[in-house]
Amino acid sequence: MILANDFKREDTYIGPAIRRAIDRVLSSGWYVLGKEVDAFEHAFADFNEVEHAIGVASGTDALSVALAALGIGVGDEVITSALTAFPTITGISRVGATPVAVDVHPHTGLINPDCIRAAITKNTKAIIPVHLYGKMCDMPAIMQIAAEYGLKIVEDCAQSVGASYEGRLAGSWGDAAAFSFYPTKNLGAYGDGGAVVTNNEVVASRARQLRDYGQDKKFSHLEVGFNSRLDELQAAVLSEKLDYLTEWNNRRRSIAKRYDELLEYGTVLHESRHDEHAFHLYVVTVKNRDKVLHAMRDFGIQCQVHYPKSIDLQPGYLQVAPKNAPKCPEADALTKSIISLPIFPYLTDQEVDTVIGHFNQVVAHVG
Ligand SMILES: Cc1ncc(COP(=O)(O)O)c(C=O)c1O
């Protein structure tokens, strides 16, 4: 069976170093917000070429903390993409703001700047561009809209650590950015984790306060805040893994290049600038997606769908969306044709060829 992700392989390579890091934390006697979190935050900020990184409990919390740190809350509308993981919506809603999902570009699946513009109201306060699959949104166009309307930008970088656009890294464009360290991510913890990054000193210190019950120092609570802290164990794991991230992202890029070279049918949702794409996922559109998915499974290859339903059709979104929320036909159409092929750093060359060989054969038969 070729899995979409096989974490046990990673363990055979880096397990000993990870176990040493875990031991180090266990024997330190300090488990929340200590030296490990501090060291990881500095290393992660450096990696992303930003001033500050603040470790939190998940990518969803990173979105909420970033929005709250920018003063966004009840009564404010936040525009985001209709093709994203649902937690983007959870992160907005948890601060009391109203999520507004807008349509995507059919050739990339990324938020369409024209649709952002069309959805702006007097209540709009922020945009969350989602760098889906590891490919960055059209940030110059989005920055231009934000500047025109005085909106904040929080980049959703859950899938895009190490991606760039015109040489500038994901997370370094907006007022703040949110990263996820969910195990499947390009930089995954061994549990949940996330980070807010920003170049703004004021936003950074408010985010630090917010993640820790709103306290600026022990027993001084300036606001209610959250309990959302990256723990020492996950920070130690992440510091070890951060050293491999560039190598792993490059391996993802070379797998994608091989898929591109051999792909005979279907259309990819990325252009050829592999160096800028983090290839969290390798996504192709095909006509008979469900048939292809099942036929691949019969060959022992686990393909996935990210995502089978667009946000504008999710009941959870409709409970919190504005009454006249935009329709998103391009996102809806994509959810019926997209399929994600296995891609992770320890996939072997032989497996890559097996996957694409079967994929070509299957699509030739079922479309
Ligand atoms: C695009 C996107 N945004 C936000 C999140 C939320 O991250 P987490 O699962 O760490 O809360 C995820 C991950 O599931 C994601 O893929």
SSE diagram, text form:
Layout: H1 7-28, H2 35-48, E1 52-56, H3 59-69, E2 77-81, H4 87-93, E3 98-102, H5 113-119, E4 124-128, H6 139-149, E5 152-156, E6 164-165, E7 168-169, E8 176-180, E9 194-198, H7 201-211, E10 215-217, E11 220-221, H8 232-242, H9 245-262, E12 267-268, E13 282-285, H10 289-298, H11 315-318, H12 329-337, E14 338-341, H13 349-366
Parallel strand pairs: 2-3, 2-4, 4-5, 5-8
Antiparallel strand pairs: 1-9, 6-7, 8-9, 10-11, 12-13, 13-14
Helix pairs in contact: 1-8, 2-8, 3-4, 3-7, 9-13, 10-13
The site of pyridoxal-5'-phosphate has 15 residues, from helix 3 and helix 4.
Bound molecules: pyridoxal-5'-phosphate
Q: Remind me, CATH topology of the largest domain?
A: Aspartate Aminotransferase, domain 2
Instruction: Based on Cα principal axes, name the global outline.
Output: globular
Helix content: 40-55%
CATH architecture of the largest domain: 3-Layer(aba) Sandwich
The first-level CATH class of the largest domain is given as Alpha Beta
Q: How many distinct domains?
A: 2
Low-confidence stretches: none
Strand content: 5-15%
Helix and strand content put the structural class at alpha/beta
CATH homologous superfamily (4th level) name of the largest domain: Type I PLP-dependent aspartate aminotransferase-like (Major domain)
Largest sheet entry? 7 strands, mixed
Give the count of helical stretches: 13
Total beta strands: 14
Walk across the major sheet and give the strand order. Answer: 1-9-8-5-4-2-3
| Average pLDDT figure | 97
End-to-end Cα distance, whole Å, is 23 Å
